[in-house]
Design brief:
80% of the residues lie in helices and 0% in strands. The chain has 10 helices and no strands. It has 265 residues and is mainly alpha-helical. Residues 139-143 have low confidence and may be disordered. Residues 123-148 are annotated as: Disordered.
């Protein structure tokens, strides 16, 4: 790892704060952190450095929303996610920094497109599911059989596992799945919190084996982790007051810029 300048360290600290904020408030903000880490650091190494910070944020998210998880959904997802993580690990075995940087850039642009599509369909889903619970739990879309539900969980799970292993970018994929499954606010936050804590912890041995996490990366993480904490508390404090539409627009714009920057770098 090359020497980090003061301004690069400031950028990483800001991105780490955004990690904490995204875990307890707006998950889409995490793609901005991913873009900053991949721009400041070698893209391949950035995934290993970011992972422990994500776990710190996951701990705060679970602490805040632990009672609202739907474990039946999590159990249904985990086998497919494991397959996606293994596929992502195989990819990382041969991918050099240029390939990882390109992959992260493409994933960011795809995730931004998915988020735009999700925003356009969320209103329609909300109207269809009105009356099934305003804050907590979920309502399965009408007519969705068990085989279709398993197929959907499998496809989202594999894609989420791959993207989270390669780029720590499984958030938008899982958001799409949970929203399509009819999760309301607290059920969404609680299930997502437990999902990413379990998956990110499970990714650690793979990242160590790939050489993405070592003593040097953990030393940098030790300092940056201090920035995750205030972001997590800030997100928890303002989660009910955020202008979601404006914030998502800013996140999408920043994600697109970050993805293009990585592709053109």
């Amino acid at each position: 790892m090359d020497t980090i300048t003061l301004w690069e360290l400031v950028a990483l600290a800001g991105a780490a704060t955004l990690v904490g904020f995204s875990k307890t408030a707006v998950s889409g903000a995490n793609t901005v952190s991913l873009a900053i880490f991949a721009a400041v650091l070698p893209a391949r190494e950035s995934t290993g450095i970011l992972l422990p910070l994500l776990i710190v944020g996951d701990v705060f998210a679970v602490r805040a929303y632990r009672r609202h998880a739907d474990w039946a959904t999590l159990v249904r997802l985990f086998p497919a996610v494991a397959a996606g993580v293994v596929a992502g690990t195989v990819f990382m075995l041969w991918a050099d920094d240029a390939a990882v940087r390109t992959s992260i850039g493409v994933i960011l642009l795809v995730m931004a497109s998915v988020t735009v599509w999700r925003r356009r369909t969320a209103g329609q889903q909300a109207r269809e599911q009105k009356g099934q619970g305003e804050e907590e739990g979920r309502g399965e879309p009408a007519g969705e059989g068990r085989s279709r539900a398993r197929l959907k969980a499998g496809s989202y799970g594999v894609l989420g596992g791959f993207t989270t292993m390669v780029a720590n970018a499984g958030g938008p994929v899982m958001s799409m799945y949970l929203l399509s499954a009819g999760f309301r606010k607290l059920g969404f936050l609680g299930t997502s919190a437990w999902f990413f804590l379990v998956v990110n912890v499970a990714k650690v041995p793979f990242s160590v084996g790939l050489g993405l996490i070592d003593g040097h990366s953990l030393l940098l993480d030790a300092g940056l982790a201090l920035c995750v904490v205030p972001g997590a508390f800030l997100g928890r404090a303002v989660v009910d007051r955020i202008n979601q539409r404006l914030f998502e627009r800013l996140v999408i714009a920043a994600t697109v810029v970050g993805g293009l920057q990585l592709l053109l770098r």
